[in-house]
Amino acid sequence: MTTQSWHERAAAVQIDGRAFIDGRRIDAASGARFDRISPVDGRKLAEVARCAAPDVDAAVASSRAAFEDGRWGYLPPAARKRVLVRFADLMLAHADELALLETLDMGKPIRYSLNTDVQLAQNCIRWYGEAVDKIYDQVAPAPQDSLALITREPVGVVAAVIPWNYPMLMAAWKLGPALAAGNSVVLKPSEKAPLSALRLAELALEAGIPPGVFNVLPGFGNEAGQALALHMDVDCIAFTGSTRTGKQIVQMAGQSNLKRAWTELGGKSANIVCADCPDLDAAVAAAIGSIYFNQGESCNAPSRLFVEEPIRAAFLEKALRLVPRYAPGDPLDEATVMGAIVDAAQMKTVLGYIEDGKAAGARLLAGGNAARVESGGLYVEPTLFDGVDPAMRIAREEIFGPVLSVLAFTDLDEAIRQANATPYGLAAAVWTADIGRAIRTSRALRAGTVHVNQYDNDDITVPFGGYKQSGNGRDKSLHAFDKYTELKTTWIQI
Length: 494
Known about the structure:
Layout: H1 3-12, E1 19-21, E2 24-26, E3 33-37, E4 44-49, H2 53-69, H3 77-93, H4 95-106, H5 110-131, E5 138-139, E6 146-154, E7 157-161, H6 167-180, E8 184-188, H7 195-207, E9 214-216, H8 221-230, E10 236-240, H9 243-255, E11 260-264, E12 270-273, H10 280-292, E13 304-308, H11 309-322, H12 344-360, E14 363-366, E15 370-371, E16 379-380, E17 383-386, H13 393-396, E18 403-409, H14 412-420, E19 427-431, H15 435-444, E20 449-452, E21 471-472, H16 481-484, E22 485-493
Parallel strand pairs: 7-8, 7-10, 8-9, 10-11, 12-13, 12-19, 13-18, 17-18, 19-20
Antiparallel strand pairs: 1-2, 3-4, 5-6, 6-22, 11-21, 14-17, 15-16
Helix pairs in contact: 2-8, 3-5, 3-7, 4-5, 4-7, 5-6, 10-11
């Protein structure tokens, strides 16, 4: 599709911002709405239902009824599989529409919305659908006069609260295993990017997921999100977002009914490049591409780059040649590789960190400014700091923007210590030609994912999650079923 075609479709798009409860679109009980403003050009996209506690009560009651009567969970696994595969097929059939909503709503380039986010999201739904009738329960080695069965059962009503940076994909990471296991799901998308989730609910219904099994409540975290976390009839809450909000959700889960609380939170990932890096060009391309992908709005972005001193100058020279390729462009142009920051508050935060880095004495080598101001949208130049001290805020705090901090090192053990000297532990990387050094370093790094001589390789078959204050539990892979099922032991006397 041409750039003009995408703009024509964007101009003509009609968006329904109402909630989705019990198989139908409805307004919030209060009638309240909020405006969704596109970061692409500042235009109003839709008025979206501002759901709150009464809407949460209605959605949870709908999901509880659907769970208790077994309209979904009692279906044979093969039947649930067929419906989830149809759901994935419909996502592909509506790929252009979903991608456009994602780009207009949160600003990422259309090339990635279409070719990455939609594709990965539908594959996630499809994979869990295909997996669910291939998972076996167990028979324990009990005494001869007993039969001991170990079985998995759905946990019940799952509340899924997702972020704005990958709205469709994060929804799929929760929906895939939760629905495949037979649960009902109430999804609360971020108020900053709720549109694709609402459309997914309609496609799920069309695919054959019964009313009440999948409800979507747009709204604000301190209203709809808090009500879900405190709700006494929610059995499990799965959250992806900031560490600060994750802590609040865990506290509210404990204050209410001690519901299962699973969190995938922030990160300040370390990327360590040793002097014996086997392919410096590849290391540079990965470091630059991974931090500026999705405008730096990725929890696992390698925002701390540790470069061994003997190669630092060469690394920076190569890096500075690549940075201009990531200049922000029109997100509806398929050639654009970096789009808009999600909203004005996030842009202010990013620019504030840049100013703080300069004031602290870091050397600004590239970027640092707002861009494409004439568009009416929200854009920040790809930014690179050298001479960063580990004590600086830009080296310690999650920025969630296109800002890379370079820290030189002369001793690998010290680099590992600094890499681990953070409350986060989501991802990390090491580049070295020495396999022994690679293994020792990967073992020493306290992170849920460690990359060796690459960054961001990924697949639905491997788990994703963090150590420390980057959260608990794992998304993706068969391990995700652990979050949405209960283990039951049944003893039978023979």
